[in-house]
Amino acid sequence: MDNNSSVTARPSLEYQYAFDLCALEAHQVPGTTAILASAPFYARELLKRLDGRAKVVAFIRESDRTPAGLNELLGPEVTDSDIRPWHSFQCQAQSVIWAEPLPNDKPPIVDAIEHILSPGGFLSVVSSGWLALRFLPEWLEGSQHKETRPARLQRVLQWLRPDGFQIEALYGFHGPRSALWGYASRLMERLGRPDLADRYQFRMRASYVSRGQWALLAPVRVMRAKRSATG
C-alpha cells in the first residue's frame, strides 16, 4: 500500500465500497468502534466515514506512527489524540475494523483484538487479493515492497478461529465476473455496438458485489465476524 498518496486522492471504487460497508455496519452496532490500520490510507478513509464515533487505536507498523509528516499523511480527519498503542485502550469496543492484514501481523493483532473487542462484538476485516496488487493504483506504486503485500485471507481465518470468531459474511467487490462484463462492454463500444455495451455495463454493475466463495477472487474483500460471547 502506498502511504504517500495525496490526502485528497479518491480511493478506487473497490475500496470505496469496502469502506462504506464497514462504516454502515459500524453504525448499526451501538458503542465504540476502533480501527486497526496498517497504513494511514485506511485510517483516513474510515474515519471520514465514521463521523467521529471511532478512534484509531494503533497503526500496525510503528513507522507509520512517527510524528514527522503524520498530519500530511493522515489529513485533517486524524489528530494525534486519535492514535494510541492498543494496550493503552481503556474501554472495550463493540466493533473493530481491521484494515489491512499483513503477513507478520498475527501476534500483535490477535493480542490487540482480544484486548479491545468486547465478547460478542463484531470484527470487520478489509483485505486485498492478488487482483488488487495487479490492477489497483493503491498497490501499483508500492508493489515493489514485499513487506507491504497483504496477508492471504485464508491465513487470517486461521488466525481468528482459535479465538472464538464465527464468520458471518464475506463480500467481494469487482470480482472476475464483474470485470469480464466490464471488458465485454468496452469491447462492444469499440465495435460500434452501444446496445450491447449498455447491456453488458448493466451486468457488470449488477455483479459488482459478490458473496461467499466468489468474494475470495475479488480484488478487495470485507469479512464480517462475531466474537464468542464468552470471550
Amount of helix: 25-40%
CATH architecture: 3-Layer(aba) Sandwich
CATH class: Alpha Beta
Percent strand equals 15-25%
Biggest β-sheet strands, sense, barrel: 7 strands, mixed
- Determine the structural class based on helices, strands and strand pairing: alpha/beta
Number of domains: 1
Radius of gyration: 18 Å
The low-pLDDT segments are 3-8, 63-69
Tell the overall outline.
elongated
N-to-C CA distance: 32 Å
How would you explain this protein's 3D organization?
Helix 1 (13-27) crosses helix 2 and helix 8 (176-190) runs antiparallel to helix 9 (194-206). A seven-stranded mixed β-sheet has the order 2-1-3-4-7-5-6, sandwiched between helices. The chain has helices spanning 13-27, 40-50, 70-74, 106-116, 130-135, 137-140, 153-160, 176-190, 194-206, and strands at residues 33-37, 54-59, 93-99, 117-128, 165-173, 209-211, 220-227. By secondary structure, the protein is an alpha/beta fold. It is elongated and about 60 Å long. It has one domain (13-173, 211-227): 3-Layer(aba) Sandwich (Rossmann fold).
Brief digest:
With 231 residues, the protein is α/β, with parallel strands linked by helices.
Write the layout of secondary structure elements.
Layout: H1 13-27, E1 33-37, H2 40-50, E2 54-59, H3 70-74, E3 93-99, H4 106-116, E4 117-128, H5 130-135, H6 137-140, H7 153-160, E5 165-173, H8 176-190, H9 194-206, E6 209-211, E7 220-227
Parallel strand pairs: 1-2, 1-3, 3-4
Antiparallel strand pairs: 4-7, 5-6, 5-7
Features:
231 residues, alpha/beta, Rossmann fold, 7-stranded mixed beta sheet, 7 strands, 22% strand, disordered N terminus
